[in-house]
Design a protein that fits this description.
Helices cover 28% and strands 25% of the residues. It has two domains: 141 residues, Periplasmic binding protein-like II (D-Maltodextrin-Binding Protein, domain 2); 93 residues, Periplasmic binding protein-like II (D-Maltodextrin-Binding Protein, domain 2), CATH 3.40.190.10. It is of the alpha/beta class and 294 residues long. The relative contact order is 0.22. The chain is elongated and about 60 Å long.
Length: 294
């Protein structure tokens, strides 16, 4: 995964708001060194720009691509103030349809029912923050990921820590939500730090905000939305770079299609890579995530 720095972005709409185990022992800890912190937002790239995917045969694709999603996961998919379905996933799906020269339609379902809607043929694809877990792969096939779910450290704005390495964090008090993958990661790689588990994220956020702890470790997407919202009171900022170990934090979000629909799955991969190459993905990321989580 490459990271591309981008600057000067402002949000056009305000946001609201485990993966498969790897074989063998955990890999060594690596804080991403390729994050370029010279501009406000770093945009991730999950595509190999040197690879050239074959354009799908339009005759083998449906003329209308029916997506299923949820309406309660802002800023990814939600009902906006005008009553319309909106969000990063919705805009990305529309970009996919435009790239494939097909029309788009959307329907919503509860998250628990999204997979069934695709499996039963009531939609061709799902774009709802789905992760390609072994259980999900029993009935669905997945595109390559279009968004990761990195972990990040957050500290108060006066925090002088520049790098979030085990050596630097060893002297710090770190809040984390108890019994989560983030706590397990801290105890595996940052066990010299004073780890302070909290019952929920709200309590952990309030602890770092009040200065009861030095840092908070958690999901980068959720923390980015908190930093960009009013609840944080502009107290804090990201410290160090993202941690992307899939064994702890999952493989990221993908588009799901019915199991065995290789034609549509390959078409999704083609469209997503072209969307990245054309800069459309970057525009959407900057629009919906003014505080980037990479």
């Amino acid at each position: 995964m490459a990271l591309v720095a981008a600057g000067g972005a402002t949000a056009q709409q305000p946001p609201a708001a485990q993966g498969r185990p790897a074989p063998g022992s955990p890999p060594p800890l690596v804080e991403r060194a390729d994050t370029i912190a010279v501009t406000p937002v770093v945009v991730p790239n999950f595509w190999n720009v040197e690879r050239r995917l074959e354009r799908p045969d339009a005759a083998k694709l449906p003329k209308e691509l029916r997506f299923v999603t949820t309406d309660d996961y802002p800023p990814f998919n939600f009902i906006n103030s005008t009553g319309a379905l909106s969000g990063f996933n919705i805009d990305l799906a529309r970009a996919i349809c435009a790239e494939l020269s097909v029309t788009c339609s959307f329907q919503t379902a509860s998250f628990a029912d999204v997979a069934d809607v695709v499996d039963q043929g009531r939609a061709e694809a799902a774009i709802a923050g789905l992760v390609a877990t072994p259980a999900a792969r029993a009935t669905l096939d997945f595109s390559e990921r279009y968004l990761g779910t990195p972990a990040r450290f957050v500290g108060r704005r006066q925090e002088t820590l520049a790098k979030a390495t085990p050596e630097e964090v060893a002297s710090k008090k770190v809040a984390v939500v108890s019994r989560t993958a983030h706590e397990a990661y801290l105890r595996s790689f940052f066990n010299e730090a004073a780890i302070r588990p909290y019952p929920d994220l709200k309590a952990a956020q309030e602890a770092v905000k009040a200065g009861q702890v030095d840092l908070l470790f958690g999901d980068g997407i959720t923390l980015a939305l908190w930093l960009n919202g009013t609840d944080s009171g502009n107290c804090c900022r990201f410290v160090g770079g993202p941690f992307t170990e899939s064994r702890f934090f999952g493989d990221g979000f993908s588009v799901a299609v019915k199991e065995g629909n290789d034609t549509l799955r390959h078409a999704m991969d083609f469209a997503l890579q072209r969307i990245w190459e054309k800069g459309v993905y970057t525009d959407l990321y900057l629009r919906w995530f003014p505080v980037g989580f990479y």
